[in-house]
Amino acid sequence: MKPTSAAPSVAPAVEAEGVSRRYGDVAALAEASFRLEAGRFLTVLGPSGSGKSTLLRLIAGFEAPDAGRLRLYGRPVEAIPPHRRSVGMVFQRLALFPHMTAAENVAFPLRMRRWDARDIPARVARFLSLVRLDGLGARRPHELSGGQQQRVAIARALVFEPELLLLDEPLAALDAKLREEMQLEFRRIQRELGVTTINVTHDQREALVMSDRVIVMDQGRILQDADPETLWREPAHAFVAGFLGVGAFLDGVAAEGPALAIAGATLPGRAPAGRAAPAPGARARGSLRADRVRLAGAGATPAGCHAAAPALVEDAIFEGDRILYELRLPTMGGARLRAIDRDPGAHARHAPGAAVTAGWARDDMILFDAD
Amino acid sequence: MRGGWLHWTVAALAAAFLAAPSLVVLGASFTAGNIVAFPPEGFSLRWYGQVLSSTALRGAFLRSLEVAAVCTAVAIPAGTLAAVALARWRFRRATAIQLYLLLPFTVPLIGSGIGLMLLFGELRLLGAVWPVGLAACVINLPFMIWAVAASVNGLDPELERAAANCGAGPAQTFLLVTLPAVAPGVVAGALLMFILALNEFLVSLLLVDARTVTLPVHVYNSIRAVITPDLAAVSSIFVLAAAAAIWALDRLVGLDIFLKAK
Ligand SMILES: Nc1ncnc2c1ncn2[C@@H]1O[C@H](COP(=O)(O)OP(=O)(O)O)[C@@H](O)[C@H]1O
Ligand SMILES: [Mg+2]
């Protein structure tokens, strides 16, 4: 078996410093900087077109950055062509070789990397087994189901023990149930092999479920880099707050406190973690997660709330384990709010058209500068 | 299905119209008489026997095979590389090359034929068989390019990136991933080139002399003397050979590859 090259233990697996890439007028990636320690699972989360695939293409070496520096395990990679980088990738459309069997697909990286031919069959069998495809090695890709093809692609990307695994939304095309199954599968394999992984997705749930760390991107920029819980609790930008979870924004003017002034009312809130609240007098938007908004009957104030406002129920959407209320605040210029009731069986449901009171604690409303 | 009968009637008429010449020739080849006639006079295989025993016909047939073989052998590498290059790399002369690909429909064959005749005459190549194959290749190459381009366009561009990611250099990627993935188009194009070269008439007529006649030219020369049923037999053999090639094409790669071109 091929000896694994001893990676310098101190250098991070990936180190990007001001990496940029333009396509014509579009800045697909603008001065991206981050470090990823070896053995970690990082997810890059962002809407379509935010530059996620561009980042992976630069790391894999299919394209070169216009500016900035990229190091893998301490080594600058600019001069290394893609086929000499120790990076495995699972492509969005999988890109299995159609004329090869599953086993030949998995053997291909070993053949190209000149492994001893006698070691290859056992190694391929081990990795087909790792992705639970025992006995299917002789099939061509078109003879396998979508989930099975996915597993072949994973085995092919991992079989040569890459220093880094890149996943370009490989789960996006799967149906919801299979996708959740494969998310856990990826996580299991990643833990089993301990391979440093960068996963790319526009699915916030996937990012939270799978990752040690999440980078949120929008329009080629990195907006936040944090672990999933911090990201969820302490969004650093209004965009991040809007992208994760279900919620709403209240637009108004920043006030002392800090607070948000809308239509004569002053609603207490707080600054984003580690940052200043918007300057008093400036336009600001308050972010309120639906699961933090509590409802009570008209005139009453929900327990434990620092702020409350009369609300009209516009819609009450039954989602099985919860009810999502779409609300309108008539005293706040008709602003919209959302509330989630996680225990729909416990008490009476508010019907559409009902007048209620919506309330929240001070720390639940985060105040951002309006863009 | 309402209106279905109309479709089928039109389709059947069109098929009959297209097949009629071949059927007439096939019928005439079985005649027992001494002149070409349809419906045939009686039934016999004597003209097929005649064909098989004629050294002139056999020689012409072998030369046609040689022409087709040369044409195909040149077309496979030339057409494949051209198609891959055209589909993969955007370059400045791309539109000019696309225009060239339309040439078989725009330049009359007699024009290309005379051009090649002058060129080959200048190069002192007239009188040999292989230059006819080369000429057939030059004229028909766009068909080869189309067939391969259909396969290349159907290829996932990420496939080659995946190969590089697996550690394959550019040459290995081309040989081990790109080529096998477009192989169906190459097979289809090669068979097509073979049939086209086997049947090639007009340009051959200008390039051959008495010692190097190909089968279609031989048949044409014979018709100008006297039309005997052995020519109908030769033509039938031709039609059957072409049909066999189309059948093989369908079995090997499927005919729909031509519908996916573009
Ligand atoms: N090859 C390309 N040519 C031109 N523009 C491109 C190319 N690749 C990406 N882009 C543009 O760069 C931006 C980021 O693209 P991409 O990295 O693919 O986003 P994502 O993977 O997050 O959806 C998009 O605006 C996209 O249109
Ligand atoms: Mg993408």
UniProtKB/TrEMBL annotation, chain A:
The UniProt record lists the keyword ATP-binding: yes
Top-level taxonomic group: Bacteria
GO biological process, one term: putrescine transport
GO terms for cellular component: ATP-binding cassette (ABC) transporter complex
Annotated protein name in UniProt: Putative spermidine/putrescine transport system ATP-binding protein
GO molecular function, one term: ATP hydrolysis activity
Keywords, sorted A to Z: ATP-binding, Nucleotide-binding, Transport
ABC transporter domain location: 14-244
Keyword RNA-binding (UniProt): no
SUPFAM superfamilies assigned to the protein according to its UniProt record, in alphabetical order: MOP-like (SSF50331), P-loop containing nucleoside triphosphate hydrolases (SSF52540)
Family annotation (Pfam families): ABC_tran, TOBE_2
InterPro entries in the record: AAA+_ATPase, ABC_SmlMolc_Importer, ABC_transporter-like_ATP-bd, ABC_transporter-like_CS, Mo/tungstate-bd_C_term_dom, P-loop_NTPase, Transp-assoc_OB_typ2
Signal peptide location: none
UniProtKB/TrEMBL annotation, chain B:
Cell compartment(s), UniProt: Cell inner membrane; Cell membrane
Membrane-crossing residue ranges in chain numbering: 61-87, 99-120, 132-152, 173-195, 231-249
InterPro entries referenced in this protein's UniProt entry, alphabetically: MetI-like, MetI-like_sf
Topology in the lipid bilayer: Multi-pass membrane protein
UniProt entry tagged with the keyword Transmembrane helix: yes
Keyword NADP recorded: no
Pfam families, A to Z: BPD_transp_1
Biological process, per Gene Ontology: transmembrane transport
UniProt keyword terms in alphabetical order: Cell inner membrane, Cell membrane, Membrane, Transmembrane, Transmembrane helix, Transport
Residues of the ABC transmembrane type-1 domain: 61-250
GO cellular component: plasma membrane
Origin superkingdom: Bacteria
Stated family: Belongs to the binding-protein-dependent transport system permease family.
Protein name in the entry: Putative spermidine/putrescine transport system permease protein
Species: Rubrimonas cliftonensis
